[in-house]
Write a structure and sequence with these properties.
heterotrimer, A alpha/beta (about 250), B alpha/beta (about 180), C alpha/beta (about 350), A: about 250 residues, alpha/beta, Rossmann fold, seven-stranded mixed beta sheet, 10 helices, 7 strands, about 15% strand, globular, B: about 180 residues, Pyruvate-ferredoxin Oxidoreductase, domain 3, 6 helices, about 25% strand
């Protein structure tokens, strides 16, 4: 069988989701963003809501998310995505509105906007990609950085006395009456990817049913920021992140 | 015709709403008006005042230094604004609680026992309308029919049944003012 | 004849918003402008026009809710007072950078810091020279009556959409708190997405359909050459504003040897000062800038030929006077009189300052 046979339509077993653009991802090899982008695109394609979806991108590595998912995007000031989503969703209640944010964007500078949007029960979806670090600016500590974790601003490891505790923002969000679905997932293997996709689909369906805010944390790796190979980064994540940021649904009502 | 008035007293005496009714009455008479309140923490139980200007022509400054009429409803307001009455102007005050009465000789001074009259009427909320009546008796710058129209505009519709009581209070004030 | 109502400047803003087809208001309480949101909540426009009114958790959130709504091509607005406006400056910069229309009302109070709640004009620099970061401008309108508070809501939206740029109504505690007669204008319906596209182009995030490319609203341009091209385009936009949108009002200027330049509440005081000074034989007029950006520079230059001197009056330490001096460029004496801290100058004080200049 040569190449010509392989690319015959009848032999095709997988195709790139048409809601993804042709652009090459700028993310580092091994980064979780690409997988999460793909899952979002697939859910949007499968639900047939490309023309009804408005996404809000953050400041951080995913600032360029609009280059990859072929839907309408608003690029927010740092941390303000949930406020933009509120403005868009309130005035355009028929649209699906989601934010896509990193842990620095959402849980440090954007804490107020995030908590209040969730508390008001905005019918939006919030995706938090938690890699416990500021990736884009070169690997500084975020509120979600683990105790002892080495970053460029905690070169001797995160010191609780100096920097306080890692913030379980998702657990905090789960306490808010405005949220209907709060879950923590990951994308390091096929099983995890399938679960995350299911969670994303459910969150979008919650939006349509006006059930309140759906909040999905995806525990992710940042092999560049963590200064590990992609494989080692996934292992480090499983060994260190998962025990602290436990996977699974925190709330589903 | 131009009349520059300040109404000053305690918060809760209905100073601002009296000014609003007067201003609305002016609009009903096709006049130009401005209504400028003091605002802020001082309103909460402290002193309150409002400057109302009614004029045939466009009103320039809504804030003025000297007044054709000062209506003072407590001692602080009397002390603060007595000197701001234009020569030949009017000072109307409620003597209730006044220990130092006004002394100027170059202005017209009038008294209205508004608190007492309100009690007699059994309508303590009519206080400010009694004062308005006293003022309109001395300076009939707006017709009574326009005052009633002004009242209707100022008061939310659900309270329109109170308009006759207000009208009665205005008339009481007209009768009770002493020059 | 249209109905004439007595209302506060702040109330007029709220009523005008509903009647001119505003899609959403997002705000946070602060004195002396809280009546704007209170009036909107009382009126419940979501039951009539469908306009959204939401109390946000902060001014930072308010302006970013505007960003979200404006990105959808909607008519969105907020109002605040000086300290709150400082918090919104980040949003102004982003929205100017993303070329988004919106309307902001600043009912200015005394500063710096928490300052006072009394009327002031000390935010002129913030409004006209930036506030936020980067080379951008706001369209700045300065009403001096309650009727103009009403009318400039519609005008603000019109200019904001025409130029795809945030517009700011710069007013103060006097204009916000005082009541005057207001003539209501005919109601306008809220625009549909199709109407926005027809009137102002197809740029908003209304959902990507098969027949058009994706719309991405962003102010990000990492490549210097791309950003410079964008900056140059903004400069062109501001140039056009300066050519086409300057608005001002002249009173008693025809035979004037001197003029006072003042805007907002100060211009009302100066109107009376001009009357007083004229009665004493001083040939003085009043030039009132209605747009503070674009500033009536050319008009001031034209008038300079007939004048001996100019007095600028502001409720600040002297901010707009710098633009007057730039316009005059040394050709005439330009004097300044101002009161600070929330104190409103009296007509008599202005006349005294005028006499000192005339001497």
């Amino acid at each position: 069988m040569d190449v010509k046979d392989i690319i015959k339509p009848e032999n095709k077993v997988y195709g790139k989701c048409p809601v993804l653009t042709e652009r090459v991802l700028h993310y580092c090899p091994g980064c979780s963003h690409g997988t999460i982008h793909k899952l979002l695109a697939e859910v949007i394609q499968e639900m047939g809501i490309q023309d009804k979806t408005i996404a809000i991108s953050p400041v951080g590595c995913a600032v360029f998310a609009y280059n990859y998912i072929d839907i309408d995007w608003q690029q927010a000031p740092h941390g303000r995505a949930a406020a933009l989503a509120t403005g868009a969703k309130r005035i355009c209640p028929d649209k699906y509105v989601f934010t896509y944010q990193g842990d620095g964007d959402l849980s440090a500078i954007g804490t107020a906007e995030t908590i209040h949007a969730c508390n008001r029960g905005e019918n939006i979806v919030i995706i938090l990609v938690n890699n416990a670090i500021y990736g884009m600016t070169g690997g500084q500590m975020s509120p979600l950085t683990l105790e002892g974790q080495v970053t460029s601003t905690t070169p001797y490891g995160r010191d609780i006395a100096l920097n306080g505790y890692p913030l379980k923002i998702t657990n905090l969000i789960a306490q808010l009456d405005g949220t209907c679905y709060v879950t923590r997932q990951s994308v390091q293997n096929a099983a995890a990817v399938r679960k995350t996709k299911k969670a994303i689909r459910k969150a979008f369906e919650n939006s349509a049913q006006k059930k309140g805010t759906s909040f999905i944390e995806v525990v992710s790796s940042c092999n560049s920021g963590w200064k590990l190979s992609p494989v080692d980064a996934n292992k480090w994540m499983e060994d260190n992140m998962f025990p602290f940021y436990e996977l699974g649904d925190l709330k589903d009502k | 015709m131009k009349e520059e008035i300040i109404i000053a007293g305690f918060g809760g005496q209905g100073v601002l709403s009296m000014g609003k009714i007067l201003a609305y009455s002016g609009i009903m008479q096709d006049m130009e008006v401005t209504w400028m309140p003091s605002y802020g923490p001082e309103m909460r139980g402290g002193t309150a005042n409002v400057t109302v200007v009614l004029s045939d022509k466009r009103v320039s400054s809504p804030i003025v230094q000297s007044y054709d009429t000062v209506i003072a409803l407590n001692q602080q307001s009397l002390d603060k604004f007595q000197q701001s009455v234009k020569a030949g102007g009017l000072l109307l005050y409620d003597p209730n609680g006044i220990t130092t009465p006004p002394t100027r000789k170059d202005i017209k001074i009038a008294k209205i026992e508004a608190a007492e009259e309100a009690t007699k009427l059994g309508n303590s909320k009519g206080y400010n309308m009694i004062v308005l009546g006293a003022f309109l008796k001395l300076k009939p710058i707006v017709k009574m029919e326009n005052v009633i129209k002004g009242l209707k505009k100022s008061i939310p519709e659900r309270h329109h049944h109170l308009i006759p009581m207000n009208e009665q209070a205005i008339e009481r004030g007209m009768g009770a003012v002493e020059v | 004849m249209a109905e004439k109502l007595l209302m506060k400047g702040n109330e007029a803003v709220a009523i005008a918003a509903i009647r001119c087809g505003c899609d959403g208001y997002f705000g946070y309480p602060i004195t002396p402008q809280s009546e704007v949101m209170e009036t909107l909540m009382e009126e419940k426009p979501w039951e009539t026009t469908g306009m959204v009114v939401l109390q946000a958790e902060s001014e930072v959130a308010s302006i970013n809710m505007l960003y979200g709504g404006a990105s959808c091509g909607k008519k969105v607005m907020t109002s605040s007072s000086s300290p709150g406006i400082s918090l919104m400056c980040e949003g102004f910069s982003y929205m100017a950078g993303a070329e988004l229309p919106c309307l902001v009302v600043n009912v200015v109070r005394g500063g710096p810091g928490l300052g006072s709640i009394q009327a002031s004009q000390a935010d002129y620099f913030q409004a006209t020279k930036g506030g936020g970061h980067g080379d951008y401008q706001l369209i700045v309108l300065a009403p001096n009556s309650v009727q103009e508070m009403y009318d400039f809501v519609d005008l603000g939206f019109e200019l904001a959409f025409k130029y795809r740029n945030p517009a700011l109504i710069l007013t103060d505690g006097v204009i916000g708190q005082m009541m005057e007669k207001v003539e209501l204008r005919p109601e306008k319906k809220r625009w549909t997405d199709e109407e926005v596209i027809k009137l102002h182009g197809d740029w908003a995030t209304t959902g990507k359909t098969k027949d058009r490319p994706q719309h991405a609203i962003t102010s990000l341009a990492l490549e210097s050459a791309v950003l410079e091209r964008f900056n140059l385009r903004l400069i062109e936009k501001y140039k056009k504003l300066n050519e086409q949108e300057v608005r001002f009002e002249k009173t008693n200027c025809d035979d004037a040897d001197y003029i006072i330049i003042a805007y907002g509440a100060a211009s009302r005081v100066c109107e009376k000062a001009v009357e007083l000074a004229r009665s004493e034989g001083i040939k003085v007029g009043l030039l009132r800038p209605i747009t503070l950006y674009p500033f009536p520079t050319k008009e001031i230059q034209n008038m300079a030929k007939q004048l001996k001197a100019i007095l600028t009056v502001e409720m600040s330490a002297g901010q707009m006077v710098q633009d007057v001096r730039l316009a005059i460029n040394g050709a005439l004496p330009v004097e300044f009189f101002g009161r600070l801290g929330g104190i409103i100058p009296t007509p008599e004080e202005v006349v005294a300052a005028l006499k000192k200049m005339v001497k």
